[in-house]
Amino acid sequence: MDDFLTVNDLWKSFGADHILRGVNISFDEGAVTSIIGQSGTGKSVLIKNIIGVLEPDRGDILFRGESMVNAEPAKRDEMRRHFGYLFQDSALFDSMTVAENIAFPLVEGRGEKDRDRIAKMVQEKLEWIGLPHEADSYPAELSGGMRKRVGLARTLAVEPDVLLFDEPTTGLDPVLAATINDLITRVNEEFGITCILITHDIQATFRISDYIGFLYDGQIQAQGRPDELSKTDHPILRKFISNSFSELEV
Asked: Which string of b and e fits 5-41 if b means at least 16 CB within 10 Å?
C-alpha cells in the first residue's frame, strides 16, 4: 500500500453507540478497494468520514500525506474537491432534468459559467454512461439503474481523483447490478480514478476489486487482495464469505 489515502486510528460514536473503534486502512492510488462487512458495522459511517459528511471523534485521514481532519477550512475544502461521492439512492434533484442534475456540481460547486462548455461536458458524460438521449428527462421518468448511471455521470463531471460508492447496486436486479459494477471498472481503468466502495455484492467484490477490507467490531480486521482474503484464517471473515456465496447459490 502507498500513502495516497490513509485512515489512521479513526473513531466515531453516536451517543453510547461506538461505531468505529480505531479503523486503520490505506488505499492505493488508482486501485479499486472494497469495504465489506455485515450490515450495521459502520461501512457507510467510514466513507462518510472520508468524504467529510461526518467528522471523526478521534484519529486522522491523510490525503497525499496531508491531514484532512486537522487542515484549515479552506485547505480542507480544496482537498475535498478531489473527492466524489455516489449516494446509495443517487440523490438526484427531482425538479431538475438529467442535464441540469449533471451540470449542478459544475455550476454550483466549481463556478463554471460557460454554457457551451457545460453542455458539452454533460453530453460527453451522458454518452459515456450510455444515455445520450436522456438530457431532457426527469429522474422520475428513469429506471433505478438509469438513475444510478446519471448519479455516476454527475459525480464524474467534476473529474475527481477519488470516487466513493455507497452500496452502488442496492435495489437492482442481477443484470443491472452487473452493469453498474462494470461501469465502476470502466471508471477506474479509463479515467484512472481511485475507487472505494462499500457493498453487499460479495461475488462482484471479489471480481472487480484490487483490495478488500473487512470491517467488523469497529475495526478493519483483515485487508488484502481478493485471493489473499479468500484464503483467510480469520474465523468471522471466513464465515461471512462462506455465507455470502452460499446465499448466491440458493
From this structure: bbbbebbbeeeeeebbeebebbbeebbbbbbbbeeeb
Q: Any idea what the CATH number is for the domain that residue 184 is in?
A: 3.40.50.300
The arrangement of strands across the sheet holding 219-224 comes to 83-86, 162-166, 194-198, 32-36, 211-216, 219-224
**Nearest 10 degrees: Cα torsion 137, 142, 147, 150:** -30
Tell me the pLDDT tens digit for each residue of 49-85.
Answer: 999 999 999 999 999 999 999 999 999 999 999 999 9
Shared domain check, 164 and 245: yes
Beta strands in 114-228 (DSSP E): 162-166, 194-198, 211-216, 219-224
User: Could you tell me if 149 and 167 lie in one domain?
Assistant: no
Give the chain's domain count.
2
What does the alpha-carbon distance between residue 123 and residue 132 come to, in Å, rounded to a whole number?
7
Cell 443517487 sits at which residue?
A: 90
- Give the residue numbers spanning the domain of 117: 92-156
Predicted TM-score (pTM) above 0.85: yes
Closest residue by Cα to residue 63 from 86, 81, 46: 81
Phi, psi (rounded to 5 degrees) for 8:
-115, 115
Rounded CA-CA distance 56/78 in Å is 19
Residues 6+ apart with CB under 8 A from 115: none
